[in-house]
């Protein structure tokens, strides 16, 4: 038995599983949420330590050991947030993260409040996406209407107004001849198709 077959060096490397863009968006946004929760916990602990230090005048922070991650969102809430993340288009993933970080920096929330802020940012992004889709839909409708109106404009440009042609009848000719005028409006010029 050869050594190479024993270690399986001849086998091709396993391929990375192909994930859909939606799955990648959900994973990225949820990782950002968990990171922001950890950061909020860390800032909350630092604020508590500063408060204790000011209150007691002694720093015992070096004695305290904190759990790595104490707050976690409930499974139901996680599923709701993941469902909301699926509605985010991949091109909006970056702007959503940037907006979420701005909101977190602005409000400096506690760990329990981070998921609510995340939900509000996702709702804001979903509404923006919906508005842009409606605007695109209206633009498409407008473009199709413009195409039909352009075809009418080309039809109208083919017909020429000829106001000085000699066979144009006027009311004064009918009065001079003593005939009844036809029902046509005589003040309108006659339209002819030019070839």
Automatic annotation (TrEMBL):
InterPro entries: RD3
Any Pfam family: RD3
GO biological process, any: retina development in camera-type eye
Protein's UniProt name: RD3 protein
Organism: Mionectes macconnelli
């Amino acid at each position: 038995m050869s050594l190479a077959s024993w270690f399986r060096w001849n086998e091709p490397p396993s391929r990375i599983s192909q994930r859909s863009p939606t799955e990648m968006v959900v994973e990225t946004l949820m990782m950002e949420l968990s990171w922001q929760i950890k950061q909020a916990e860390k800032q909350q602990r630092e604020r508590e330590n500063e408060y204790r230090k000011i209150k007691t005048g002694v720093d015992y922070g070096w004695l305290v050991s904190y759990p790595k991650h104490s707050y976690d969102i409930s499974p139901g809430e996680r599923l709701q947030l993941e469902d909301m993340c699926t509605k985010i288009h991949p091109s909006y993933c970056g702007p959503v993260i940037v907006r979420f970080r701005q909101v977190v920096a602005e409000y400096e929330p506690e760990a329990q409040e981070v998921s609510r802020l995340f939900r509000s940012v996702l709702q804001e992004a979903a509404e923006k996406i919906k508005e842009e889709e409606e605007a695109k839909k209206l633009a498409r409708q407008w473009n199709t209407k413009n195409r039909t109106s352009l075809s009418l404009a080309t039809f109208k440009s083919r017909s020429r107004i000829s106001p000085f042609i000699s066979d144009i009848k006027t009311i004064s000719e009918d009065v001079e001849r003593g005939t009844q005028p036809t029902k046509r409006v005589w003040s309108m010029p006659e339209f002819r198709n030019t070839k």
